[in-house]
Write a structure and sequence with these properties.
By secondary structure, this protein is mostly beta strands. The chain is built from two helices and nine strands, in the order αβαββββββββ. The N and C termini lie far apart (50 Å).
């Protein structure tokens, strides 16, 4: 059955509510744990540090040139390491998306100190489903840790 045209076709309808108009804490799946903020640090296989580690482990020389990051953990503190928090890509729900870490219990605008621990896996170019060898690596700014103000 065909619906009749609107009685006032030139009348603009109000804009639908946007998720972006809502307060940030309402949008987060972590908001039940208090304030939520984010920091950004994108880890990927083409980073110099990852490629250097693959070379040192002999993966590239053996032809295992497909490198992946199967997991990562953000170790952070906002109080000079009196309290340490860990956010893992294995947590459910996953608090890490495209380099953005969601920190529950941390208000936006908080300066945090952090380091990132990542898992590494090497694969033959045609066999990315099977890890030939695994390892791990810390990103910690040469032992000084990173600092970032959360959003």
């Amino acid at each position: 059955m065909k619906q009749p045209p609107p009685s006032q076709p030139d009348t603009a309808l109000p804009r639908p509510p946007s998720r972006l108009d809502a307060p940030r804490s309402v949008l987060s799946m972590f908001s039940s744990k208090g304030p939520v903020s984010t920091l950004h640090f994108l880890v990927h296989a083409d980073m110099v540090e990852v490629q250097r580690q693959a070379e040192a482990r002999g993966w590239l020389a053996r032809g295992f040139t497909a490198i992946t990051i199967p997991w990562l953990e953000l170790h952070w503190s906002a109080d000079g390491w009196k309290t340490q928090h860990v956010v893992s890509s294995n947590d459910v729900p996953c608090p890490v998306v495209n380099g953005t870490f969601h920190l529950s219990g941390c208000a936006p605008g908080t300066e945090v100190e952090f380091a990132i621990h990542v898992g590494l896996a090497c694969h033959a170019p045609a066999d990315t489903a099977f890890a030939r060898d695994v390892g791990d690596l810390w990103f910690n700014n040469g032992g000084q840790n990173y600092r970032q103000t959360t959003r």
